[in-house]
Design brief:
It is globular and about 50 Å long. Strand 3 and strand 4 form a beta hairpin. The chain has 189 residues and is an alpha+beta fold. Strands 1, 2, 3, 4, 5, 6, 7 and 8 form an eight-stranded mixed sheet that branches. It is built from six helices and eight strands. The C terminus is likely disordered.
């Protein structure tokens, strides 16, 4: 039985479906699309700032998610700025790495949770190592068709498999487990 409702700041219905599959019956998220400007900085700073602003707007418990794609050959770029780089498309992202032998990448999902206005956000972060490859699979969810983990792109994986290994799964599972255990402060990565 679902016992708590938390506002999840997103306008992406695909994320809501994926997150609900990860959370199961432990709690209910209520999606809310808010246009909150993002500061420039490290991913944890960006997530914390966005969460603080969202908690003020929502006036209650809120969680925000920041997804990053860190390319090894580019020293972690584009990182939290991946949204801007998505304008290049899958082929363009691949071309960024054309001159490099290292196609390694890390998908990073950073959640920031606040109990409400004035409360310091807590951070939960999941990471998944992989490689950038030519696009394979459906292209309806960002850079998933070019991120390969253990021989399959995230787009090629079935929902159940992806929802049990992805960076998003790791971050949301940490949050779910923390929440279910009564809110013991998480260790940051």
């Amino acid at each position: 039985m679902k016992t708590c409702v938390i506002t999840f700041v997103t306008g992406n219905s695909n994320k809501v479906v994926e997150v609900n599959a990860i959370l199961g019956e432990s709690l209910t998220i209520q999606a809310c699309a808010l246009d909150i400007p993002e500061i420039q900085g490290a991913v944890k700073e960006i997530a914390r700032d966005k969460c603080r602003r969202a908690a003020e707007i929502v006036n209650g418990p809120v969680i925000v998610e920041d997804c990053s794609l860190e390319l090894s050959a580019l020293n972690g770029l584009p990182g939290p700025y991946i949204k801007s780089f998505l304008a290049l498309g899958s082929d363009g992202l691949n071309k960024l790495l054309y001159a490099y032998a290292d196609k390694g990448a890390e998908a990073v999902c950073t959640l920031a949770f606040s109990v409400g206005p004035g409360a310091e956000p807590l951070i939960f972060q999941g990471r998944l190592k992989g490689n950038i490859v030519p696009a394979r699979g459906p292209s309806n969810f960002g850079w998933q068709p070019i991120f390969e983990h253990n021989g399959e792109t995230l787009a090629e994986m079935g929902d159940e498999k992806r929802n049990n290994i992805s960076d998003r799964y790791q971050a949301w599972a940490m949050f779910r487990d923390w929440f279910s255990a009564g809110g013991i402060y998480p260790k940051e990565t």
